[in-house]
Amino acid sequence: MIIDEKNLEYRFGDSGPKYLMKGPRSNFALVRFNPKEDFPAHYHEYMEENFYVLEGKIDIYIDDEKFTLSKGQFIHIEPTCVHYVNNPYDEPITMISTLAPYHEIDKIEVQNYKPTT
């Protein structure tokens, strides 16, 4: 299978995830957040998630602990860990996201999440 990402769209027009593959065993996405954008806090019951930063800088909160990642850094998030992604910086961020094992519906949003750190 060969996918050209130029033929796909980001979820929110010019930002958010752009899935190059969804299933049957994993998801693979290119993710972009513009300056001052974030992605709601959520967790996965079954899937683990990984992010690898291609360009920019991003804050990722995992179970309320803040991690700041930049180009070339990788982070692994275990199932059931609440995670919130925020780009408070002045530059866009581009990263790769993988989720496995594939479950078609495995995203539980956390309402009224406010990081404490």
Record keyword descriptors for this entry.
mainly beta; 0% helix
Architecture overview:
This protein is mostly beta strands. Helix content is 0%, strand content 50%. It has no helices and 10 strands. Strand 5 and strand 6 form a beta hairpin. The chain is globular and about 40 Å long.
Rounded Rg:
14 Å
N/C terminus separation: 42 Å
Q: Number of folding domains?
A: 2
Structural class: mainly beta
Task: Provide the residue-averaged pLDDT.
Answer: 96
The number of distinct helices, counting runs of at least 4 residues, comes to: 0
Q: How is the main sheet built?
A: 5 strands, antiparallel
Q: Name the CATH class of the largest domain.
A: Mainly Beta
> How many β strands by DSSP?
10
> Would you tell me which CATH topology of the largest domain applies?
Jelly Rolls
Q: How much of the polypeptide forms β-strand, as a percent range?
A: over 45%
Organism: Vagococcus zengguangii
Protein name: Cupin domain-containing protein
Pfam family, one: Cupin_2
InterPro entries: Cupin_2, Flavonoid_dioxygenase-like, RmlC-like_jellyroll, RmlC_Cupin_sf
Chain-wise SSE layout:
Elements: E1 16-22, E2 27-33, E3 38-43, E4 48-55, E5 57-62, E6 65-70, E7 74-77, E8 83-86, E9 93-100, E10 108-109
Antiparallel strand pairs: 1-2, 2-9, 3-8, 3-10, 4-7, 4-9, 5-6, 5-8
Pfam families: Cupin_2
Protein name: Cupin domain-containing protein
